[in-house]
Amino acid sequence: MASPTPAPVKKVPIHLQSAQNRLYIKRGHVVNHDGVQHADVYIEDGTVRYVGSGADFVVPGGCRTIDATGLLVIPGGIDPHTHFQLEFGGTVSVDDFYKGTKAAVAGGTTTIMDFVLPKKGESLLEAYDTWRSRADPMVVCDYGLHVGITWWSKSVREEMRTLCRERGVNSFKCFMAYKGLYQLNDSELYEVFETCKELGAVAMVHAENGDIIAKNVTKLLADGVTGPEGHELSRTEEVEAEATNRACVIAHQTKTPLYVTRVTSKLAAEQLSQAKRRGVVVYGETLASSLGCTLTNVRPQSLAYYVTSPPIRKDPETPRHLLKFLALDDLQTTGSDNCTFNRNQKELGLKDFSKIPNGVNGVEDRMSVVWEKGVQTGLIDAQRFVAITSTNAAKIFNLYPRKGRIAPGSDADLVIWNPKAVRTISASTHHQACDFNIFEGMKCHGVPEFVIVRGRVCLENEHVRVAEGQGSFLETPVYPTFVYDALNGRVHSEEDADDKQARNGLQHLELHHKPGYDNDMHDPYPLPEKYIPGPALSVISGDSQVSTPHSILGHRPDGAKNMQESTFSISEELDKSEVRSCIRVRAPPGGKSSGFW
């Protein structure tokens, strides 16, 4: 009798094969959202096992060591807004889940969240299965999914319930724009929000007044405004701000937590700020494209390449305004809304701006752009950078502290970040599939030296080394503590503090103090003592083995070492008087602190 055919073995590239599964990072400045700690980090089996003094830890034999002296060790970035392989406007975005996640890793992002967008009338579950079948074999980092509610019925409500209970989804996005394609009316929004609250999910919106936009488009085209300049004219800041306020009102009426995606204007951000002060539980996301670009100096013939919705704005002060809202916690996250099309795809709408496929790049450059525009200019500090590029998204979508934090028990998604290194963004060197880059020529301080994904060193010496399918799907459990505690009036000391422990301003970056290990802040959402991430309900589990090629720095014979005092300061290049003019200064005992601006 013939023996049964053996099951196929998944081949792992040679650079990801290793008998070793241990990695030790020494002498770095570990930056979490609530504290900076001069510490060593030990990783084993894809999980952080130790953070603290090297003098108190014996490094195991056969362990690769990376020297992070003078560098920051930060949680891997979480991009809460991508659109890989998306059909839109009669074409398909060119970054698939392999190219898109590879580009993400190249820039320091180790987790992405994409959007399932069903066609009108399509089953949400079938659309979800389609996205999983595209992503699971291709992703090189972990990913989660939001699901778009593009039409409404009782069957949609039931499928939302199934997605929450069985498929690992806790967030649903509604569109107030794209009339005739995705747009819901206010009554439908109300019912979707009620359902989200009932399920313990987070309601999300794309906030633009689709009815007004449709009227504006018709009028502009009739008046002969057919070029790409018509796009922003049809979707002014006021149109975004009105929808933002309306979404906040509906969320407040239904007592539902709300997440407003891709806030691109000062007016819309002001609506969020006012809503928060009225007691609305609302979170706001802005984009790398709106922080790194304006349309002020874009040539008219190039405007098509920048088309996205809501638009990148013309006002040159918009990036600074948005960064101020990020610093003050009126906006909480930064995404990319990465939805890339090549030049020839964008040019489909050169004679009718309403036919230009919407979307731009950003998943690879998001971290560097936010650092350059925020930290390098003195508007935020490294802790707030970690919060808005990683931790806040992890908290809102219930991935924290598995993601978004460097602590024992957390996934070993880390970036060793060089804040003094400079790179120039260019389509000629980026890892994305698109043939242009909206940040072309931008010089950015802040570059990832190493990117570690679940314990594997995936970026080193500017070389990305990844394999298709090495990432895994992340289930996002319902009732995220961070969100629903706020909704139920339970405020943790972290959020209750006057300065929210997000010490904005470079002078609070104590990177040149003597090495110490007692200055990490209390975390109100700690991991259990024996936290071990359990298997997801619908996950195809991947290999968690750590890639540890031979270290170019050599191995350490034992755990003892002399800690080096760091003289590194990222504010050396800035005029201190300029920094003080745009940051909140911590007051001495009995004194008063200056305000922003």
Defining key terms:
single chain; 597 residues; alpha/beta; nine-stranded mixed sheet; eight-stranded parallel sheet; 16 helices; 19 strands; disordered C terminus
Reconstruct the topology from this structure.
Layout: E1 22-32, E2 35-44, E3 47-52, E4 64-67, E5 72-75, E6 77-82, E7 87-88, E8 91-92, H1 97-107, E9 109-116, H2 124-135, E10 142-149, H3 154-166, E11 171-175, H4 186-199, E12 202-206, H5 210-222, H6 229-234, H7 237-254, E13 258-260, H8 266-277, E14 282-287, H9 288-292, H10 318-327, E15 333-335, H11 343-346, H12 366-375, H13 382-396, E16 414-424, E17 443-453, E18 456-460, E19 463-464, H14 481-487, H15 493-496, H16 576-580
Parallel strand pairs: 1-4, 1-5, 6-9, 9-10, 10-11, 11-12, 12-13, 13-14, 14-15
Antiparallel strand pairs: 1-2, 2-3, 5-16, 7-8, 16-17, 17-18, 18-19
Helix pairs in contact: 3-4, 4-7, 7-8, 8-10
Written account of the structure:
- This protein is α/β, with parallel strands linked by helices.
- The chain is 27% helix and 19% strand.
- The chain has 16 helices and 19 strands.
- It has helices at residues 97-107, 124-135, 154-166, 186-199, 210-222, 229-234, 237-254, 266-277, 288-292, 318-327, 343-346, 366-375, 382-396, 481-487, 493-496, 576-580, and strands at 22-32, 35-44, 47-52, 64-67, 72-75, 77-82, 87-88, 91-92, 109-116, 142-149, 171-175, 202-206, 258-260, 282-287, 333-335, 414-424, 443-453, 456-460, 463-464.
- Strands 1, 2, 3, 4, 5, 16, 17, 18 and 19 form a nine-stranded mixed beta sheet that branches.
- Strand 2 (35-44) and strand 3 (47-52) form a beta hairpin.
- Helix 7 (237-254) runs parallel beside helix 8.
- The longest helix is centred in the middle third of the chain and has 18 residues, at 237-254.
- The protein is globular, with a radius of gyration of 23 Å.
- The chain starts with 21 loop residues before the first strand and ends in a 17-residue tail after the last helix.
